[in-house]
Amino acid sequence: MSLPLAHMHDPVASPLAGSDLSPDDMRALEAEIHALAREKDAIILAHNYQVPEVQIVADFVGDSLQLAIEAQKAPQSTIVFCGVTFMAESAKVLNPGKRVLLPNLSAGCSLSDSITAESLEDWKARYPEHAVVTYVNSSAEVKALSDICCTSANAASVVRSLPQRKILFTPDRNLGAWVAKKVPEKEVVVYDGCCPIHDVLRTASVNRAKQGKPEAVVIAHPECRADVLEIADEVCSTTGMLSAVGKYPRAKTFIVATEHGIVHQLRRRHPDKEFVIADGCIGCRMHCPYMKMIDLVMIRDALARGKHEVDVPADVAAGARRALERMIAVPRDVPARPASAGPAS
Ligand code: CIZ
User: Fold this and answer.
1) Are 7 and 105 in contact (CB under 8 A)?
2) What is the mean pLDDT of residues 280-284?
């Protein structure tokens, strides 16, 4: 089955089928998945926000950019992508010759849905002189209409690397505002989308999570609102968070302002530290329902039956690939311009 570009997302889809399995059943399922992956010449990739049992069975766990690059490096002909739709699409766009499977087609993304190709066309018409920088949390159609993509790990470097001074940043307004602050020599217009999981977080929740732990280090994802980023000690992508912890050898506790799933990797890599998700207030759960839509049964079925093959139309894929490849070519840390350098051209 191919993935249609305009598909339905159901955030309250059925609970994970694998979540009530006994430890023995779980181990048997993991063994079945590994055997099937070998038989079908498949690699299993999982995003840092996936449920722990999916991260455990995966061959590689990382952020969306790392996963797309890992998919390119992998010798296997099939990629089982445990993440959300836009990530699987990017893996397909960068690996047109490989079969990319997304185990649950309902795994969408509200941020990606906050911008359509039509709305980007409208914004481009309003800002015709601006270079369009699009966060990877977007559909392949939207990427295809953009000059270049970025991730939360490289957004400031991507914007700095462009010759244009005027930038239209889409679709995440919080990440866009953070980049505008970090790259003051550019004139950045920010589209009005957001990730509701990050956008709901308030400083009151962070402060509550910190109660009784005044020494705790706060690490926040740049999809959080500006007031949260202001009180954070570190602002970084999920991959950045995994390494940021190493900068604080004396700290015991870290308050983490991003989706819950990252705690699995944080604890695995830093077992001597305490990690507390910053959703201290009732009604503020940093839990993305879309990221929890894949379980072991679905991965087994994806491998056994080839479900669900992701396909991106050739013209859309060509445009999206151009924007993604331009991003990949940007050096990792494009330095900030010294204030004395004057305005960018
Ligand atoms: O780009 C990604 O993988 C996302 C959605 C978050 C992050 O910072 O890793």
Assistant:
1) yes
2) 63
pLDDT, tens only, 222-277: 999 999 999 999 999 999 999 999 999 999 999 999 999 999 999 999 999 999 99
Q: How far apart are the first and last CA of the chain?
A: 48
Q: Which stretches within the chain are classed as H helix? A: 23-39, 52-57, 64-73, 85-94, 110-113, 117-126, 140-144, 155-161, 173-182, 196-199, 203-210, 226-230, 238-244, 262-269, 296-305, 314-329
**Is 236 near ligand 1, meaning CB less than 6 Å away?**
no
DSSP helix/strand/coil, 283: coil
CATH number at residue 97: 3.40.50.10800
Measured from the CB, is residue 63 less than 6 Å from ligand 1?
Answer: yes
Q: How many domains does the chain have?
A: 3
Is the minimum distance from the CB of 90 to ligand 1 under 6 angstroms? no
Both tokens of 123, joined, read 């914004």
70/130 same-domain check: no
C-alpha span between 319 and 141 (Å, rounded): 8
